[in-house]
Amino acid sequence: MPQCKVSAVLLAGGEAKRMGRINKGFQPLNGAVLAEHVLSSLKHQTSDIYISANSYADEYALRFPFPVFPDIRYDFLGPLAGIETVLTRAPNIEWLFCCPVDTPYIPDNLVPSLLNNAITLGRTAAYPCHNGKAEPLHCLLHSSVLPELTAYLDAEKRSVFRFLNSVDAVEVPIETEDDSFINLNTIEELRQAEMKQTSKDSIEN
To answer: Which residue ranges does the record assign to the MobA-like NTP transferase domain (predicted)?
Structure first.
């Protein structure tokens, strides 16, 4: 398989309505904030990282050594707008792996698995499927999809899954732990995840 450069975007530009519109990525979980958990995994799987953030762009820029891009479109149009922004403002990207800030347990082999399947099948996009459930927000996109993405957003379409279908993305089954793609949308879910991890650590030790 040819060597390919894979960049990553941490999707942190949402409004976090179910968390009271606070900075979701800076909420603590087991000794680090959510964003740190995700970025730690991305560092091991990708060559460079970008952050998509809107309301809290300055906070991300101060805390992390990665380029931070607010959406080039207005009105919080969803993750596709953040992806479009990164592909537009960072033109040297070859492949872009997308990951929400509220999913701290992504598998360590996720990006290589998606890339291998996309290249093998000659596709420009791939996304994981875990336990029969598609995970489109953890998609891998080739930069060549940018014109189609822009046209899709211009047509006032927002669904990530439908966009992936429109570019014939490959669905990749991923065998991993049940919590690998869990997303933490509320403070209560954060605390439950923390207690679960604490209990798991005590059993293992």
So the answer is: 8-164
Candidates 149, 107, 146; CA nearest to 129 is 107
Query: Angle at the Cα of 68 (from 183 to 162), degrees rounded to 5?
Result: 50
Q: For residue 26, how many other CB atoms are within 10 A of its CB? A: 16
The mean predicted confidence, pLDDT, of the chain is: 91
Determine whether the annotation assigns residue 154 to a binding site. Answer: no
Strands 6-12 and 28-29: unpaired
Q: What is the pLDDT of residues 48-67, one digit of tens each?
A: 999 999 989 999 999 999 99
Question: Does pLDDT of 17 surpass 70?
Answer: no
- pLDDT for position 179: 86
Distance CA 159, CA 79 (A): 9
190 annotated ligand-binding residue: no
- Rounded Cα distance between 125 and 118, Å, is 6
> Which of 185, 85, 28 is closest to 98 using CA atoms?
85
110 marked as binding residue = no
Instruction: Confirm whether residue 43 is marked as ligand binding.
Output: no
